[in-house]
Amino acid sequence: MACACVDAPTIGLRQGTASSSRHGKAIVCKQSHIASEVESFVYPNLEQGMIRLLRILPAAPRDASVVCCEIAQFHLDEELEYKALSYTWGGEQEPCTIYLNGRPWRVRRNLWRFLNQARSLQAHCSGWIWIDAICVDQSNDPERTHQVNFMFEIYRRAQHVLVWLGPQYGDSDKAMQELDHRHKSRSSRSLHGVWSSPAGAAICELCKRPYWSRLWVFQESKLGKAKTIICGDQAIPWESLTSFLHGIDSRAPGPRVRKMDHYKLTRDGPAYP
């Protein structure tokens, strides 16, 4: 059984504006055997000085794996409240289908994983989000060039930058929880002891993920007013990681620590500031 989207009463949208309080038509998802006959999403022309933003809709009770989004245009000089996603595109193999305004659209698997996971992280991922692979018509060279020139402003004006490291694996939950605990408790425990623990190995693996090798990663993450790191279903403030990494050498580690692989790989890795 394939999946499609159908109309249902909810909050309506007018192109170029935020949602109004009037009830209209929006998109929800349900299973259908005619999804393959639905025409793909077609980008309307994007006027100068405007950007697209999308909003991830709640999962449908009958098929939570179907990801549906609303997408609309906004003037960048408006007092917009939105988030911007910083992530890796990942490989082109095994693309996944989502639905934009009720029409199917193909995205790379890493982005689908974020969109799917974001629905369970409403405290961090609700509202409008700018995602380059969807909010920019990648097949339209003039638009793509124009939007690339806007990217500095898009990230700078975002209320929040969401840093997506990917799905949970390699004890990433343990790493995220250790970083979050240390940050929240302002733990004065020596950082050196962590390298001989499972948490140290997990943090090392987290800091080796492909995201940290992106060319623009630090430019994007530093521009937003606030940053949140998301890995799987775990979300922590950006400062949870940066304070840990800055503290690695706050006290000179002894010879035993300096020889530990997890310490060396993290200290010399791409995530280290």
Label this structure with key terms.
globular; disordered N terminus; 273 residues; 2 domains; two-stranded antiparallel ribbon; nine-stranded mixed sheet; alpha/beta
How would you describe the overall organization of this protein?
The chain has 273 residues and is α/β, with parallel strands linked by helices. It has 2 domains: 136 residues, no CATH class; 102 residues, no CATH class. 32% of the residues lie in helices and 25% in strands. The protein contains 10 helices and 11 strands. The strands form 2 sheets. It has a 9-stranded mixed β-sheet with strand order 7-6-4-3-8-5-9-10-11. It has a two-stranded antiparallel ribbon with strand order 1-2. α5 packs across α6 and α5 packs across α8. The N and C termini lie far apart (48 Å).
Short structural summary:
The protein is α/β, with parallel strands linked by helices and 273 residues long. Helix content is 32%, strand content 25%. The protein contains 10 helices and 11 strands.
Q: Helix tally?
A: 10
Roughly what percent helix?
Answer: 25-40%
The number of domains:
2
Q: In which order are the strands of the major sheet placed?
A: 7-6-4-3-8-5-9-10-11
Write the layout of secondary structure elements.
Blueprint: E1 3-11, E2 23-31, E3 50-56, E4 68-75, E5 82-86, E6 96-100, E7 103-107, H1 109-118, H2 122-125, E8 128-130, H3 132-135, H4 141-157, E9 160-166, H5 172-185, H6 198-206, H7 217-223, E10 227-231, E11 234-237, H8 238-247, H9 255-258, H10 261-267
Parallel strand pairs: 4-6, 5-8, 5-9, 9-10
Antiparallel strand pairs: 1-2, 3-4, 3-8, 6-7, 10-11
